[in-house]
């Protein structure tokens, strides 16, 4: 419970043992009270000085139109303050429509989108960014990611140059990468003028990524955990069920909490209101050190869809 005490107990800003910072987001006393009760509004510091909410709401495999719009509105109502979309998900416009409808102020919501592989390259990346920000209907995007290293060295480095320039223009606050392995990160760190703030990769107890974790930690690159629920595939694993029972929590909540305690930013996805709400209930308990070690032992290189961290 030490984390909960810290989250509720601080005043302006505090950092707890998991590297989580808490800031007052509003001078309005009602909203401040709400945000103090809502761990989802807590943030982690990025290497560029910006801060990212602890948990993101993923919208992959969420149909454009009503399904995405409704899911994002439910997520915002449940307290999520971080939405993770991508051009390839084809729902940026629907995310933007939800953002127009919500009463949550823009500056309290962290929006991520991603440059798809077929638009990599210097000019192409700039044009793709313009399309994304227009589809989202926003003045700025909080985080823009190179979706994967797949198109090869030349194109991904050109894309990064474009992202650095877009960041300078003020239209994006933070820039980062996704699905980058250590060799991709090293290649980028040799030439970049702005370090990636995050690397978004698939991570779960079943796919631990210890080496990438170590490298990113050493270089101050925050890890975002995609498919933190293993796309639902491991939620009935007996060993996980046993741990969940012990805490009177769902297996999904255990996986999300595992990610937070590792210092990652998990991005759970759901299109169901009850699951969206339940997946957010991860701030009233802490997994013991012993059980964290137990969960870490589940690692079996379980990849749900793709693993470009291993590509050339
Ligand atoms: N950068 C990348 O290459 C990349 C790749 C994949 C994903 N991502 C990001 O990461 C996000 C999450 O990953 P993901 O969508 O692949 O999978 P995920 O979050 O690991 O799992 C989502 C699946 O779990 C189900 N689910 C959610 N909550 C549940 C609960 N409480 N109980 C039972 N089932 C539950 C969902 O079903 P329902 O929706 O039907 O509830 C869905 O089938 C994505 O949405 C996207 O933003 C990024």
TrEMBL record:
Gene Ontology MF terms: aldose reductase (NADPH) activity
Gene3D superfamilies: NADP-dependent oxidoreductase domain
One Gene Ontology biological process: D-xylose catabolic process
Positions that bind substrate: 147
Keywords: Oxidoreductase
Residue ranges that the Swiss-Prot or TrEMBL entry lists as coiled coil: none
Residues carrying the site annotation Lowers pKa of active site Tyr: 114
InterPro entries: AKR, Aldo/ket_reductase_CS, NAD(P)_OxRdtase_dom_sf, NADP_OxRdtase_dom
Any one Pfam family match given in the protein's UniProt record, by short name: Aldo_ket_red
Residue ranges constituting the NADP-dependent oxidoreductase domain according to the UniProt record: 66-299
SUPFAM superfamilies: NAD(P)-linked oxidoreductase
Active site per database record: 89
Family designation: Belongs to the aldo/keto reductase family.
Protein name: Glyoxal reductase
Organism field: Lichtheimia corymbifera JMRC:FSU:9682
